[in-house]
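User: what does the whole thing look like in 3D?
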Amino acid sequence: MHERGVQIRIWIVAAGLFLALCGLGVKLAYLHLANHSKLTRAYKRTLLELRGRIFDCNGTQFPMAVSLPARQFYMDPQAVKKEHNKRQIAKTVADSLGLKESDVFDKFSQTDSRYIKLGISDNDRIFDLLGDVKHISGIGSEEHVIRSYPQGRRMAHVLGFVNDMGVGGAGIEQQFNRYLTGTPGLIESEKDAGSREIWSRRKSFVSPIAGSDVYLTLDHNIQYEVETAIKEVVEKFQATSGWAIVERVKTGEILAMASYPDFEPGNYNDETLDVWRNNAIAVTYEPGSIMKACAVAAALNEKVVTPDTVIDVGEGVWFYAGKPLHDHVTGRITVSTALKKSSNIACAKIGLMLGEKRLDAYLRAFNFGGKLGIELPGEERGILAHVKDWDKLKATRVPIGQGVAVTGLQMVNAYSAIANDGVLLRPYLVDKIVSSSGETIFKAKPDVLGRPVRPEVARQVREMLVGVTEEGGTGKRAAVPGYSIAGKTGTAQKAVPGGYSSTDYYASFVGFVPGTAPVFCVLVSVERPRPQHMGGFVAAPVFAKIAATAARYLEVPPDLPFAEDEAEPAQP
Amino acid sequence: MRKTLTTLALTVVLLLGLGIVLLATASAVRAQGLYADPHFFVKRQLLWLALSAAVVFAVSRFDYHWWKETPILPVGFYALVVIALLLVFCPGIGGKVKGSYRWLNLGPLRMQPSEFAKILTVITMGVWMDRIGWRVHQFWKGAVYPAAGLGLLAGLLVMEPDFGSTFVVAVAGGAMMFVSGSRFLYLGVLGLAGASLVGAVVASNANRMARIMAWMQGHGEENTSSAAYQLQQAILAFENGGPWGVGFNQSIQKYNYLPEAHTDFIFAIGGEEFGFLFSIAVVLAFAIILVCGVLISMRAPDRLGRLLAFGMTLLLVFQAAINIGVVTGCLPTKGLALPFISYGGTNLITALFAVGTMMNVGRHIDVFDERMHTQVVRNAAKHV
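Assistant: Here's the predicted 3D structure for the full assembly of 956 residues, as structure tokens:
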């Protein structure tokens, strides 16, 4: 073949190649230049924020509620390969997370799901153990935040709890959810084929902001004493429940608020709805005799009576409006004695002297029948019927705490007003809220709700109430060595449909320490104690226990000399 | 001719430079994942590049006439490659990687003998066709003998199996027979026979068949085969690149979305980062190589030079066209590298060997020394 022929054939092949290159050029132009939808490989990750902490009045030393970063472990049965030893994986996982080995092993067969929750742990060592992919397959973990209550059951009803969604479901956790909840952070980036973030492509990083910390006015030391005492009395008297409140009279700060039976905020699901209820603010009950002090204060303030006014109680039974009223006190007694001995007839007569309208007005001035605005969900307003709906009997029964229902908080607050020279304060239990950046966004101040009685009237009532715990009074078991105690016992039959229960009672004691210059006020109520049901027998000793500890803890100066035999602890 | 050679050299240097830059970005993710060193592949490729530079320097100065004047050279080369293609099956020195026997482990170096088989095809075919001259029309010398030599190589390559290289070797050998003047009838019959033989082997290989089926089905989203996935990701890369590209090191597809992002599919990453501008420039560069190669071939002083220059040009451009065709979804997936740009030492060395040979032929064009002159006259005399 001639060289010319070879050249022509080379041209032919080259032309073919050239055409192929042109074709590729056209294809490339189409791929690059035609309008295509944008390629998105966006990566977004939410960074979990920590919920704000809750502290008692001692500050950050004793956290009552904290949030901890943890990891939620889950299983993807489809990711477990044949060569892996399922038994061994199940054992490791079960040991690490405190589960049953057989339960974990059974989950391997649930191949229809790729996400089976195993458990939550904040233990770094466990994470290392389970993160070892050489031995562990099909086990993954993701960020999680757990709510922890380092003090266990302490303040359970006040703190409340946080549900699985991270939202407060009761107590402070619910009421201050918006403050406690932080702001989640966000990473915006691009992801690789394994859906992992490409670090170098990170577009934005917004770090999470922890929620604000809530500082309570409660003191966990007093709270401990109160909770222990309430638990003891409820168990001792086989009562249904019991509650107690300690309030600082000069400010309205709640120092302790306890209710029993209680629950563990960290495992709130172990208990039922009625156990979660904070009885101290949510139980509406007829107070009984502890109401008498308010009625007497009203009568004194209206100058209807003086402490020395003599009232004829008769022979222990008094018929009014066709109904008998029984009394264990007889004869002619002063108003002071009426309170000291807790005379029903005397107080009923004082109620009549005062009249329905004034009685109603004073009780409302003490904030009965209305909410006090404590920073907790579920506060009840009590029951105080409108005065025009009162029947004839009501003016004789309300002064002795019947036909009117209150909450424990209302009662302790009313006594605090008497202790505080007649100035009614709003009770509160949140001292301050501090943001995660350290800024105080809320600081509580004492809030005056009103002045139901004059200072001198309050002082007169205090003096009468001191008599209750002295020899001859109904509340002598409430006495505390070294302190004068002003207080009042109360034993109320439980209202049931159609009348009153003859077996179920509310035994109460409310009072303040010291009686002459009060610092704090304590209410103790026990629901359905058995066999004894008298306030002076059931509730007064609890009061004494709480008052003695709290007075010493708060370094309240004793106003009475210690008697030798009382100062020494009794020898067994 | 000096201008042609300069253009060729510049184009190749440009492609090599582009290749290193592209490799640096395309291989970083994989290198980091495998060796915790994002520059692992770049460092290796630079070493190979240094070796290749020596090769291109040597080959362009090695007179190509030695290939025919010293028969032991092509014969020895052929024997070496055949032995190497057999050695890949030996455990120890060879071995199975990703389902095929392609690699020879020579101490620190790893080589693919199939790359040398391509060069060998061009050289031996050129020498043979130059030797038989006008007898190319004959049945045995012009068709059966060269086809048999080609068939042995192709057969060994199919055994590996390396269908891409088989295809390139067969097409390059066939094209050189065609250009040299083999009869159409013989070529057609032999080609058909070879094609059906390879076809039978392909059909018996499930993996290969699946790839072809995947390609036939198109690469729409409904096709979930791994080959189709690779193509889908490559095409996404081109689309994402747009006219100007997303910028150096800004490729998203290299983050393990596109398999083989630094070897066979590196062109797609280039298209993503540098856009249509890059893609068309590479195609243009190979077109320039084609034009330069054809010009050298046309003006070559003798038949051997003409055939060698043509064959080497064909190797480079044809492989490039196949690679780009695969990456853009025009052809079914084959394991073929893009010359000068894909990561791989043997590929780089043989590509530069080809360039060196082209340059070597080019350097003889304007040189009319006595020996050359005599040669030309002697050749001409053969055809009279």
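In plain terms: The mean pLDDT of chain A is 89. Residues 67-103+114-126+139-149 of chain A form one domain.
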